[in-house]
UniProtKB/TrEMBL annotation:
GO terms for biological process: proteolysis. Residues 1-26 form the signal peptide. Residues 65-102 form the FTP domain. The keyword S-adenosyl-L-methionine does not apply. Keywords: Hydrolase, Metal-binding, Metalloprotease, Protease, Signal, Zinc. One of its GO terms (cellular component) is extracellular space. This is Peptidase M36. The keyword Metal-binding applies. One of its GO terms (molecular function) is metalloendopeptidase activity.
Length: 505
């Protein structure tokens, strides 16, 4: 119906070589030995720990099938990330992270490593020039072309214990519109898997703060009416400060770059519009994204999506919005209520950008995709709660946007208090199953306050891998609380996630 965008399909490779070997998705909380407590190099400590526990995680003893990627240092601890490799080429989206606290204690390993028994040999690789055409054909757009350049990378996928030579090709097709990730067998050219990379949310200055339904405290006489102004809607406009503009007269700044067909411009940097002007949505997107990034930095995160993100406003006629990992851009649609008129929708999409920045490729599993949708709803709902002058719409996200498709009071894109439990209530759809995850996050905000909960949740993302599960996410949350607050909230974290059916240990 709406925001159903985590789609993928898999075509089995014509390989019959060995039985499947289960993926290692393991973690530990055992302490590092005493002699490892004060290494000069964080990577040395992480390497040593993985070598000592290689059998537990089904790694090679010398870690020769892991390639070091990066070490992230924060005030709370250290995060060392590795990429699984075969013949020095990546196994796509298979990573391992080692989390250490500031004193190199309390290690947490989250592993997406996938064991294999055989490496398939290919006598002749596909010509690189054929890859884009094949990928476009697989997504159904060979004739109409692309709206952005494609990218190609050689590596491996593991299928039934076989390391299979694979090309990962990302194309940006016009129809069906979107960024598509395809995995193509490097020898036969058959499609192994495809995934729509667009993270979507159903659509929905002076600005609405956060949206006119919440600030008014009811739906009342508020109507979209094909983007026309009304006294009721104009009354809900609030004057705000737009920080960090570059002085060009456009909505471009430290953390946001608005790319709009409206060509919004003011030599005096004064952007006061009503909603019937398409520039209004430009101001909404700039203000709310900028505010969210400054909030993250206020919490101490200077290295989380700290960039001028490009935002395409009113760029699609559909009632959908997208985050595109392949380009790092946000796109907002105009179907129903214009999506960028609702801060909850804007925050949700920015949530996808945050997670992709912390863990590139995040959501390469159903539960990971569900965590992504749940986190976006959490970010939107808590931002609405914090910026609203009323309590209307609590535990609900995108009330104004939802007036075009919801008859509930308040109208909601999704709720964060429906008491779904894992695995009983799984529907195998990321937005529906994301309500399991979002309620746990939202309950943390109710228990600890928005700032503490958000800080723990953002910190926990550093520990995750592209294929992380609900259990991985809950364990990373508990680990982040240990690192940030000495485990002060451990009991409540256990209680909250137990209620959702997700263990924390």
């Amino acid at each position: 119906m709406f925001k159903r965008h985590k789609l993928w399909s898999t075509v089995a490779a014509a390989i019959a070589l060995t039985l499947a070997v289960p993926t290692a998705m393991a973690e530990t909380e055992a302490p590092i030995s005493a002699e490892q407590k004060q290494p000069a190099d964080t990577k040395v400590a992480a390497d040593r720990y993985l070598k000592e526990h290689a059998k537990q995680y089904q790694l090679k003893a010398d870690l020769s099938d892991l390639k070091y990627v990066t070490t992230i240092q924060t005030d709370a601890g250290h995060y060392v990330r590795y990429q699984q490799i075969v013949n020095n080429a990546p196994v796509f989206n298979r990573q391992v992270t080692v989390t250490l606290d500031r004193s190199f204690h309390n290690p947490l390993v989250i592993s997406g490593y996938e064991p294999y028994t055989t490496v398939q040999q290919v006598s002749q690789l596909l010509p690189p020039g054929d890859l884009k055409a094949k990928a476009l054909q697989f997504v159904g757009d060979q004739a109409q072309g692309e709206w952005a350049p494609s990218s190609e990378e050689y590596g491996y996928t593991i299928q039934k214990g076989v390391a299979t030579p694979t090309y990962r090709v990302v194309v940006h097709s016009k129809a069906p519109y979107g960024a598509w990730e395809t995995y193509i067998h490097a020898g036969s050219g058959e499609l192994l898997r495809k995934r729509n990379l667009n993270q979507r949310v159903n659509g929905t200055g002076k600005v609405f703060l956060p949206n006119p339904v919440e600030s008014q405290g009811s739906v009342g006489n508020l109507k979209d009416n094909n983007d026309q102004d009304s006294p009721e809607l104009t009354k809900q406009l609030k004057s705000v400060t737009l920080q960090g503009l570059d002085g060009s007269g456009y909505l471009r700044g430290q953390y946001v770059y608005i790319n709009s067909a409206a060509k919004t411009y003011s030599a005096a940097n004064q952007f006061n519009y009503t909603r019937s002007n398409d520039s209004f949505e430009d101001v909404m997107a700039y203000y709310h994204i900028d505010t969210l990034q400054r909030y993250l930095q206020q919490l101490g995160f200077k290295n989380v999506n700290n960039r001028a993100i490009k935002v395409n406003v009113n760029a699609s006629p559909d009632d959908n919005s997208y985050y595109q990992p392949s380009t790092g851009e946000l796109t907002f649609g105009t179907g129903g209520v214009d999506d960028a008129e609702d801060a909850g929708v804007i925050a949700h999409e920015y949530g996808h950008a945050i997670q992709d920045n912390q863990v590139p490729g995040f959501g390469d599993s159903h539960e990971g995709g569900s965590m992504g949708e749940g986190f976006g709803d959490f970010l939107g709902a808590t931002y609405e709660d914090a910026t609203s002058s009323t309590s209307f719409g609590k535990a609900c996200v995108a009330e104004w946007d939802a007036t075009s498709y919801s008859s509930s009071n308040p109208p909601c894109l999704r709720r964060l208090d429906v008491n779904k439990v894992y695995p009983r209530d799984l529907q195998n759809e990321v937005h529906a199953d994301g309500e399991i995850w979002s309620q746990g996050l939202y309950d943390m905000a109710q228990a600890f306050g928005r700032d503490v909960a958000t800080k723990i949740i953002i910190q926990a993302h550093f520990s995750l891998t592209p294929t992380a599960t609900f259990k991985d996410g809950a364990k990373a949350i508990k680990q982040a609380d240990l690192q940030l607050y000495g485990g002060q909230h451990a009991g409540d974290i256990d209680r909250i996630w137990k209620a959702r059916g997700i263990p924390t240990s």
